[in-house]
Design goal:
CATH architecture of the largest domain: Roll
CATH superfamily of the largest domain: 2,3-Dihydroxybiphenyl 1,2-Dioxygenase, domain 1
Strand content: 35-45%
Number of strands: 9
CATH class of the largest domain: Alpha Beta
Structural class: alpha+beta
Radius of gyration: 15 Å
């Protein structure tokens, strides 16, 4: 069955993005390979994830640079599922992740919006049931 393999996220610099996603969010660094053009192929994903990962893609020109932190027009565009909302919210807060709202409990699950180092909005969510 086809599946979503990678989602590209435009970043300012590879190492600062790796630091945030690996050390603050707790993602695994899957690959960091230099390419002949001076760019790098950098892939991160949550521990245990098997199919979908993030490709951290350094902006290549001013147009791409203008989209850093605003790839979804200011709305939540990425959703990080968890099986223990309280654990991960506490761990991420302690690591310096900026939550822009208090956790809330909805019919669909527990959720709080956070921003990555560039301002892209994410939901940390534990689905109900």
């Amino acid at each position: 069955m086809p599946h979503l393999g990678l989602v590209a996220l435009i970043v300012r610099e590879y190492d600062e993005a790796i630091d945030f996603y690996v050390h603050k969010l707790g993602f695994d660094l899957v690959e960091d390979t230099a390419r002949p053009d001076g760019s790098r192929w950098v892939v991160v994903r949550p521990p245990g994830a098997r199919e979908t990962a993030l490709l951290l893609a350094r902006a290549a020109d001013p147009r791409q640079e203008s989209r850093i932190g605003d790839q979804t027009g200011g709305r939540v565009g990425l959703f990080l599922n968890t099986d223990d909302f309280a654990r991960d919210h506490t761990r991420m807060s302690a690591a310096g992740v900026r939550f822009v709202e208090e956790p809330r409990h909805e019919a669909y699950g527990s959720v709080a919006v956070f921003e990555d180092l560039y301002g892209n909005r994410w939901d940390l969510i534990q689905p109900a049931g």
